[in-house]
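Record pair follows.
FIRST:
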Amino acid sequence: MKRVLVAAGIVALFVVPFAIRTWGISQHFWMLEDQWRDWEVALLPLRDLPLVGSPTHVHGYTIGPAFYWILWAIRVTIGPFFDNLPRAGGIGQALLETAADIFLMLAVWRRTGSPWIAVAGFLLMASSAFDLSLAALVWNPTMGETLIKAALALVLFGWYRRSLWVLAVTAAIAWAAVHAYTGAVFAALATLALLAFSTDRRVLVRRAIVVVGVVALLQMPYVIYRYKNRNAPVMSAVSGGVSDILQGKAAPDFYGSARFYATAAGYFQNVHTLRWAGWILILSTGALIVRYRQDPELLWVLLAPPALAILGYALFLGTLDVYYYLSLLPISVLTVVIGLMPRSGRAATAVGAAVVIGALSLVPWRMAHSHTFEMPEYAVLVSSSRTLLGLHQPLRDIRTSFPLPPTTNVGHPYVAMGGVFDRNSLLVATINLDGSITYNIPLR
């Protein structure tokens, strides 16, 4: 009976967050440039997928195509149920992230022996208003966070010690996160270092060979791309900052980097006062080190990524944004809950129950603040595109009589469902906000 109740609880913890993340997505899917651009790539045949990842705002592309591989798989498996519209990608990403959340929750439960710590961490991660607003988007930073969660769960389960094959899979997931979003590199590097480490020299050599081999294999598409496109732009923000520092033109900003990490961690949990967020992180980090000093592996995966991020962004010298730290969201949450919550005894039950109830009570408020990235006009664009498909003749263009964000591609739903644009056609359709359509020439 106990196992049945636990299984039912796990199923509920999966279904409810997934439903919250995708609720109303068919009405207000956020379809700006990143979303329709990457979904258009997913609509391509597998052989035509690019050898690099998404374009970055600091020029160039991410260093590998894993994000597009995953998005393509989502399109093939889930897309047909939603007319291959881009919201299928958002549903697929929300499905993967929720599965990763559950997997990480179980790993934390196994590692700490406390279901309270595991559930509290899960609730604080899955109900973050910022994360909720991004979970059902076609967006590569969200995929990077999802893959880091999965890799972290595999490490906490300790399965990589059983087999080099599991180690290779864990390394591949961690490095695929960097393919998806470059900001995941700090958590990925910490994970890869742990996977390769061993006090036995022979074991260390074998693990290191596997880790390096996996990374090298995953980088082959990028190497081929660079060989074929030697003049293509590369990311320059970090290299430019390092160059200025080495030339004495600037100094690393360690304090500013640490300060912004605390700001981002607090923002993710709706703690917008830097002082509070900073002190909570400091206290929980100290408590974690003292209480789990006999578990150096746990300390490493929770403390090394933020340390590397602070070091890395100290060399960035550009304007930071909170989403740069999205892949560190699960790590900052677990640092707090594992560091501060008791593991066993009556105190653990009392504190754990209080924290879980408190986290649950915050969910409605957080949901109300999670509607940041929504486009209510999406439903009108989709329904009107279906009507235009029924004309069975190509269009020259589709426009709207109402304003949309500048990077919206009005014709994308029409093309995703099989519509065709023809420059020789004279027919231009204008979609109105009430769903009606006007044309610039009479229909024949």
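SECOND:
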Amino acid sequence: MKVVEAKNITKSFTKKKYKWPKIWSPEKTVQVAVDHLNLEIEEGEFVGFLGPNGAGKTTFLKILSGIMHPDSGTAKVLGFTPWERKFGYLGQMSMVMGQKNQLWWDLPAIESYNMLKDVYSIDEKKFKDNLDMMVEVLDMKTLITKRLRDMSLGERMKCELAASLFHDPKILFLDEPTIGLDVVSSQSIRKFLKTINKEKKCTMILTSHYMGDIEALCNRVVIINEGKKMYDGLLTDLKNKYAPERKIEIFLGSLEEKKLFASIKAPKKISENIGIIRVQKDKMGDIVTEVFEKFEPENISISDIDTEEVIAKLFQKK
């Protein structure tokens, strides 16, 4: 079942530039944030949205969540036009923005949760079951009685995520949910999101600048730049298309790098006593065999090219 169907969504913003002495007649420029963007998402998918700052990721999420109206185009999310903001839609969706709070700053989290229970008319059993599950998975037992203003950023994000899911939404929009978090907090939130996506079949759309979030959670990625879609497909297919090589790190334990690179012709660089070679995947076996025949490496490590580098290559081909 299609949860999201967006066709030719376009959104522009007018910017004003004031210059003395003509401050009463500023120069106006139009910036296109989303440019005829099309997207379809099936139920239960976890889709990653990637792109540089100003690419249009957050604007598109705000349109799908109903916060913004597009200039043109059509969209159906759960069968509703999102910017009409009908209660039937609002009761089935949720949005978490990493830099904004939805909970009351001066109240303990549990008090905000009780208010949300009444807002969404959640029955007592469902509320208790969801609360117990989130407290356990997110390790929030001591947090829910703590005022939001007294929490760390990581603690607040845990409570914000929990708040967005009490009413069992069918779709969750996540805009930079791990921004500014430490490694432990980020891993905890990723684990929680993966659990909710799997167990409750909640469709999720995630924007993030952290490749760790995308790689840990999303099989499918959508890459946009200047409001236009550049790629839509599996993360593995993206890597195969734009980075068909593998990275081989050869630990020699001596100063034999020059001999190594003189005998093996491949793009490479040297870092202390580690030789790093890039080779096409189909030639990897031959290279490794040759290394062991000519040298005595302490260890060899084989890995894919970093996702950040793959994305950079994609933008270079633009």
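COMMENT: The chain has two domains: 2-102+164-239, 245-316.
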